[in-house]
Amino acid sequence: MSVRDVHAGDLDRLVALQEACFHGEAWTRGMLAEELGRPGGIFLGIGAPLDGFACAWAVLDELHLLQIAVAPDAQRRGLASTLHAALLVAARPHASAGWLEVRADNAPAIAFYEHHGWRRIGVRPRYYANGADAWVYRRQPL
Ligand SMILES: CC(C)(COP(=O)(O)OP(=O)(O)OC[C@H]1O[C@@H](n2cnc3c(N)ncnc32)[C@H](O)[C@@H]1OP(=O)(O)O)[C@@H](O)C(=O)NCCC(=O)NCCS
Question: The pTM is what?
Fold first, then answer.
Protein backbone atom coordinates (compact mmCIF):
# COMPACT_ATOMS: atom_id res chain seq x y z
CA MET A 1 0.00 0.00 0.00
CA SER A 2 1.38 3.39 -0.90
CA VAL A 3 1.60 6.54 1.20
CA ARG A 4 -0.03 9.74 0.00
CA ASP A 5 -0.82 13.23 1.23
CA VAL A 6 -4.00 13.53 3.27
CA HIS A 7 -6.45 16.17 2.02
CA ALA A 8 -9.72 17.81 3.00
CA GLY A 9 -11.70 15.02 1.27
CA ASP A 10 -10.34 12.60 3.92
CA LEU A 11 -11.81 14.56 6.87
CA ASP A 12 -14.79 12.26 7.54
CA ARG A 13 -12.53 9.20 7.62
CA LEU A 14 -9.95 11.05 9.74
CA VAL A 15 -12.60 11.88 12.33
CA ALA A 16 -13.65 8.21 12.44
CA LEU A 17 -10.03 7.07 12.79
CA GLN A 18 -9.45 9.55 15.61
CA GLU A 19 -12.41 8.18 17.53
CA ALA A 20 -11.36 4.57 16.92
CA CYS A 21 -7.71 5.12 17.86
CA PHE A 22 -7.68 7.86 20.51
CA HIS A 23 -11.05 7.44 22.27
CA GLY A 24 -11.49 10.32 24.75
CA GLU A 25 -8.47 12.19 23.41
CA ALA A 26 -9.46 12.39 19.75
CA TRP A 27 -8.76 15.58 17.83
CA THR A 28 -11.93 17.35 16.68
CA ARG A 29 -12.84 17.92 13.04
CA GLY A 30 -11.83 21.56 13.45
CA MET A 31 -8.41 20.62 14.82
CA LEU A 32 -7.88 18.17 11.96
CA ALA A 33 -8.86 20.78 9.35
CA GLU A 34 -6.40 23.21 10.92
CA GLU A 35 -3.60 20.64 10.76
CA LEU A 36 -4.38 19.90 7.11
CA GLY A 37 -3.80 23.54 6.23
CA ARG A 38 -0.84 24.26 8.50
CA PRO A 39 2.29 25.67 6.84
CA GLY A 40 5.19 23.35 7.64
CA GLY A 41 2.80 20.54 8.44
CA ILE A 42 3.26 17.04 7.07
CA PHE A 43 0.06 14.97 6.96
CA LEU A 44 0.45 11.56 5.31
CA GLY A 45 -2.03 8.73 4.90
CA ILE A 46 -2.17 5.15 3.78
CA GLY A 47 -5.11 3.33 2.22
CA ALA A 48 -8.18 4.60 0.39
CA PRO A 49 -10.26 5.12 2.41
CA LEU A 50 -7.56 5.80 4.98
CA ASP A 51 -6.37 2.90 7.14
CA GLY A 52 -3.86 5.11 8.93
CA PHE A 53 -2.19 8.49 9.01
CA ALA A 54 0.79 10.38 10.43
CA CYS A 55 0.87 14.07 11.28
CA ALA A 56 3.95 16.13 12.11
CA TRP A 57 5.34 19.65 12.11
CA ALA A 58 8.64 20.57 10.55
CA VAL A 59 9.91 23.33 12.85
CA LEU A 60 13.26 24.85 11.80
CA ASP A 61 15.58 21.83 11.61
CA GLU A 62 13.45 19.54 13.80
CA LEU A 63 10.50 17.25 13.18
CA HIS A 64 7.80 17.20 15.86
CA LEU A 65 5.79 14.01 15.40
CA LEU A 66 2.27 14.75 16.66
CA GLN A 67 0.25 11.64 15.87
CA ILE A 68 0.55 8.35 14.08
CA ALA A 69 -2.39 5.96 14.07
CA VAL A 70 -3.74 2.91 12.29
CA ALA A 71 -7.31 1.57 12.39
CA PRO A 72 -7.59 -1.17 15.03
CA ASP A 73 -8.48 -3.81 12.42
CA ALA A 74 -5.42 -2.95 10.31
CA GLN A 75 -2.79 -2.88 13.08
CA ARG A 76 0.32 -5.13 13.27
CA ARG A 77 0.62 -5.28 9.48
CA GLY A 78 3.40 -2.73 9.17
CA LEU A 79 1.21 0.21 8.10
CA ALA A 80 2.46 2.58 10.79
CA SER A 81 6.03 1.53 9.98
CA THR A 82 5.44 2.45 6.33
CA LEU A 83 3.97 5.81 7.34
CA HIS A 84 6.87 6.43 9.75
CA ALA A 85 9.44 5.73 7.04
CA ALA A 86 7.67 8.08 4.61
CA LEU A 87 7.46 10.78 7.28
CA LEU A 88 11.20 10.66 7.86
CA VAL A 89 11.88 10.85 4.12
CA ALA A 90 9.56 13.87 3.81
CA ALA A 91 11.21 15.62 6.78
CA ARG A 92 14.88 14.86 6.14
CA PRO A 93 15.64 17.61 3.61
CA HIS A 94 15.09 20.12 6.44
CA ALA A 95 15.17 18.23 9.74
CA SER A 96 18.18 16.62 11.39
CA ALA A 97 16.40 15.43 14.55
CA GLY A 98 12.91 14.61 15.78
CA TRP A 99 10.97 14.61 18.99
CA LEU A 100 7.58 13.49 20.22
CA GLU A 101 5.51 13.03 23.36
CA VAL A 102 3.67 9.82 24.14
CA ARG A 103 1.41 8.89 27.03
CA ALA A 104 3.43 6.91 29.56
CA ASP A 105 0.67 4.28 29.70
CA ASN A 106 0.42 3.80 25.91
CA ALA A 107 2.39 0.55 25.72
CA PRO A 108 1.76 -0.19 22.01
CA ALA A 109 2.92 3.28 20.96
CA ILE A 110 5.99 3.11 23.21
CA ALA A 111 6.89 -0.29 21.75
CA PHE A 112 6.38 1.10 18.24
CA TYR A 113 8.56 4.18 18.77
CA GLU A 114 11.33 2.24 20.51
CA HIS A 115 11.21 -0.34 17.68
CA HIS A 116 11.92 2.55 15.31
CA GLY A 117 14.90 3.96 17.15
CA TRP A 118 13.34 6.69 19.28
CA ARG A 119 15.06 7.16 22.65
CA ARG A 120 13.35 8.38 25.81
CA ILE A 121 14.92 11.63 27.04
CA GLY A 122 12.48 12.96 29.64
CA VAL A 123 9.10 13.10 31.31
CA ARG A 124 6.45 15.82 31.41
CA PRO A 125 4.45 15.05 34.58
CA ARG A 126 0.64 15.13 34.31
CA TYR A 127 0.89 16.40 30.70
CA TYR A 128 -2.41 14.91 29.53
CA ALA A 129 -5.94 15.90 30.51
CA ASN A 130 -6.46 12.60 32.36
CA GLY A 131 -3.39 13.27 34.51
CA ALA A 132 -1.11 10.81 32.71
CA ASP A 133 2.57 11.67 32.27
CA ALA A 134 4.08 12.21 28.84
CA TRP A 135 7.34 10.54 27.96
CA VAL A 136 9.45 12.64 25.63
CA TYR A 137 11.31 10.81 22.88
CA ARG A 138 14.04 11.98 20.53
CA ARG A 139 15.51 10.58 17.35
CA GLN A 140 18.85 12.01 16.30
CA PRO A 141 19.96 11.80 13.60
CA LEU A 142 16.54 11.62 12.09
C1 LIG B 1 1.04 2.50 17.70
C2 LIG B 1 0.37 2.14 16.38
C3 LIG B 1 0.36 3.40 15.47
C4 LIG B 1 1.17 1.01 15.68
O5 LIG B 1 0.61 0.79 14.39
P6 LIG B 1 0.84 -0.60 13.60
O7 LIG B 1 0.51 -0.37 12.17
O8 LIG B 1 0.12 -1.70 14.30
O9 LIG B 1 2.43 -0.79 13.79
P10 LIG B 1 3.39 -1.77 12.93
O11 LIG B 1 2.62 -2.94 12.43
O12 LIG B 1 4.11 -0.95 11.92
O13 LIG B 1 4.40 -2.26 14.10
C14 LIG B 1 5.82 -2.12 14.01
C15 LIG B 1 6.43 -2.63 15.29
O16 LIG B 1 6.04 -1.79 16.40
C17 LIG B 1 5.85 -2.61 17.58
N18 LIG B 1 4.43 -2.63 17.95
C19 LIG B 1 3.40 -2.11 17.26
N20 LIG B 1 2.23 -2.32 17.92
C21 LIG B 1 2.54 -3.00 19.04
C22 LIG B 1 1.77 -3.51 20.12
N23 LIG B 1 0.42 -3.37 20.17
N24 LIG B 1 2.41 -4.15 21.12
C25 LIG B 1 3.75 -4.31 21.10
N26 LIG B 1 4.55 -3.85 20.09
C27 LIG B 1 3.94 -3.20 19.07
C28 LIG B 1 6.32 -4.01 17.19
O29 LIG B 1 7.74 -4.06 17.41
C30 LIG B 1 6.01 -4.02 15.69
O31 LIG B 1 6.75 -4.98 14.99
P32 LIG B 1 6.18 -6.52 14.87
O33 LIG B 1 4.72 -6.44 14.49
O34 LIG B 1 7.05 -7.11 13.82
O35 LIG B 1 6.35 -7.11 16.25
C36 LIG B 1 -1.07 1.60 16.60
O37 LIG B 1 -1.07 0.68 17.66
C38 LIG B 1 -2.12 2.69 16.90
O39 LIG B 1 -2.67 3.29 15.98
N40 LIG B 1 -2.40 2.91 18.19
C41 LIG B 1 -3.45 3.88 18.58
C42 LIG B 1 -3.02 5.32 18.32
C43 LIG B 1 -1.75 5.67 19.09
O44 LIG B 1 -1.66 5.46 20.29
N45 LIG B 1 -0.76 6.25 18.35
C46 LIG B 1 0.54 6.58 18.92
C47 LIG B 1 0.56 7.83 19.70
S48 LIG B 1 0.27 9.26 18.68
Answer: 0.97
